[in-house]
Amino acid sequence: MGQCIYCGKPAGFLKKKHKKCEQQHEKGKSEIISLVGKIGAAGGDLHQLERSIERVASMSFIDKNTLKSLLVSGWERAVNIAFDDGLLSEKEESALIELKEHFALPEEILDKNGAYSKLEKGAVLRDIMNGTLPERIKIDVSLPFNFQKTEKVVWVFQGVNYYEEKTRTRYVGGSQGFSIRIAKGLYYRTGAFKGERVQTSETVYADTGLLGITNKHIYFAGSVKRFRIAYNKIVTFEPFSDGIGIQRDAQTVRPQLFETGDGWFTYNLIRNLAQL
Predict the structure, then answer these.
(1) What superkingdom heads the lineage (predicted)?
(2) Rounded to whole angstroms, how far apart are CA atoms 36 and 52?
(3) Residue 64's Cα: distance from chain center in Å?
(4) What is the dihedral of CA 82, 84, 90, 96, to 10 degrees?
(5) How many other β-carbons are positioned within 10 Å of the β-carbon of residue 219?
């Protein structure tokens, strides 16, 4: 006779759980995530929240390890709720930090799916939009950039793929077959050259490296390519889901694309800094 993995009572021959217990368990998990998500974004009595969570966990056969993961999932949901309007307010940021500290949730676990980084990015954008250069970034790598005296590093992306647009030229429709000598040094008549030049543009991978964002420039440093671009030299910004494309004002310069993994943040960060 097997025992139910939830309530510990007999579950029947070759059975490991009661269907009712399983349903109560899943319902409790969803309820805890919902409770944490709601309070985490709006703020509230965290002690009352803790008591409610303990009550639901007890009724739903939720152990401590499972509860910890549910708190993380709830915090992630709270971050998404906070960003529903596209912006992170100071109140929402404070509520999320208080929730994190109350339940002693480590940053590295909260950032497993990028939620904690999203919180930091939202705070950085809010500072810039309010006309303040943020001082939140923690640089744990040696930067190869030669910054100017009045420059301030705002963000650094690592492992950025850099692409350039190239123009390819080919000829189509030209004469085919054997060449026939017409005169000394000549093998085709003028009218036989009917081929046309066709140019096509394509985006090609150029390098991978660090992308530094300051209050004045965009810096890139890879194993092959290294350059700096002033904001006042950029004429267009193009957002992508995983990065940003820019076009400088020089006629000979082709579009440049940076794959950062977060197009929303990259685009809003650079556009707002360019307007300061």
Answers:
(1) Bacteria
(2) 10
(3) 31
(4) 10
(5) 23
Euclidean distance between CA atoms 62 and 16, whole angstroms: 16
Q: Are residues 161 and 244 in the same domain?
A: yes
Contact by Cβ (8 Å): 166, 201: yes
- Could you tell me the end-to-end alpha-carbon distance of the chain, in angstroms, rounded to an integer? 71
What digits encode the pLDDT tens for the residues 77-135? 999 999 998 889 999 999 999 999 999 999 999 999 999 999 999 999 999 999 989 88
Contact between 248 and 235 (Cβ < 8 Å): yes
The pTM for the full model equals 0.81
Query: What is the pLDDT confidence band of residue 199, given thresholds at 50, 70 and 90?
Result: confident
Q: Report the C-alpha gap between 5 and 161 in whole angstroms.
A: 48
CA–CA separation, 3 vs 6, rounded Å?
A: 9
Spell out the residues 6+ positions from residue 63 whose beta carbon is closer than 8 angstroms to its own. none
Total number of domains in the chain: 2
Instruction: Give the rounded distance of the alpha carbon of 159 from its chain centre.
Output: 12
Q: Which domain holds residue 96?
A: 2-129
Task: Give the span between the Cα atoms of 238 and 255, in whole angstroms.
Answer: 10
Percent of the chain topping pLDDT 90:
74
> Is residue 76 situated within a structural domain?
yes
